[in-house]
User: Which sequence fits this backbone?
């Protein structure tokens, strides 16, 4: 179990790093595009020749939107490992420890099943996008790799929930 847990945690960590890189890339693209648009405005107003060759980045909206999808998708598993999702504990705190453990097992199981279904549906959707040739408006980038990435992320969240369920069951049974 320790080896599987280590593999899942490493996968989740690498996905988290890629998510962070996507956020940095979004920032760099947006900042560069705004700067270049400002340079175009300066050239239009003052006709400074050294600014004549500068143009805004084509497809900025597409790149930022796709980087945002990568960032959000790949951060899901890390948030699950860190138990960073919003939780309402007011009523749960009033329960006995055994009822809390049963409720946690139930919610983790339902959540794992939900993310497994999400992964499956994302794969089907990505296959549809690939067969239809759906692409982004400006850059003509295909959408299906990003939906496959979301499927991989949802599957990794499913694995995290499965790992948590197994650990909780082992703890409750004393093994």
Assistant:
């Amino acid at each position: 179990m320790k080896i599987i847990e280590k593999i899942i945690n490493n996968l989740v960590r690498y996905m988290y790093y890629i998510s962070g890189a996507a956020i940095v890339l979004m920032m760099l693209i947006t900042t560069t595009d705004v700067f270049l648009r400002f340079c175009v405005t300066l050239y239009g107003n003052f006709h400074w020749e050294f600014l004549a060759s500068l143009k805004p980045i084509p497809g900025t909206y597409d790149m930022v939107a796709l980087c945002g999808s990568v960032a959000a998708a790949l951060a899901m598993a890390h948030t699950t490992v860190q138990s960073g999702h919003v939780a309402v504990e007011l009523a749960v705190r009033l329960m006995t420890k055994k009822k809390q453990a049963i409720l946690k097992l139930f919610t983790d199981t339902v959540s794992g099943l939900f993310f497994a279904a999400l992964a499956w549906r994302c794969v089907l959707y990505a296959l549809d996008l690939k067969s239809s040739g759906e692409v982004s408006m400006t850059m003509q980038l295909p959408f299906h790799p990003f939906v496959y990435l979301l499927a991989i992320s949802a599957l990794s969240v499913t694995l995290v929930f499965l790992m948590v369920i197994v650990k909780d069951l082992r703890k409750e049974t004393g093994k």
